[in-house]
Amino acid sequence: MRLVIQRVKRASVTIEGRDKRGIGQGMCVLIGVTHSDTEASADWLAEKMAGLRIFEDEAGKINLSLQDINGEVLLVSQFSLYASCAKGRRPGFTDAAKPEHAERLYNYFVERVKGLGLKKVACGEFGADMEVEIINDGPLTFIVDDAPSAAGGR
Length: 154
Description:
alpha/beta
């Protein structure tokens, strides 16, 4: 799984032009799923996301997590996080999981995040046409993959 985490002052998603869901201060998280992802991937990433220290403390240092600030989170599925733009001009999506697998893991991830006791968890709708609005704070944006890094793993 791959997360793109943006620290936001506020964010919202409008689904199919009819249903708007939003949050205040916290994170807007775009979620991509690939073929090899598992529930263990989702578990690790949910904990990592909620504990990621990207918010400022009283001294102005980036030292607090979403949990520490009692922040809110907006979760949005985005299959294009696994697009390949290496060849030609049209992105290839072969690394993105099939919809059945991706939807199951996205929903599992959402439930896992809701179980962390955060102030508010708002969600997009898997496979729907969505408009995402954010007021980025910083801006600070982070990409977190489940795969161990070349620099020594998790």
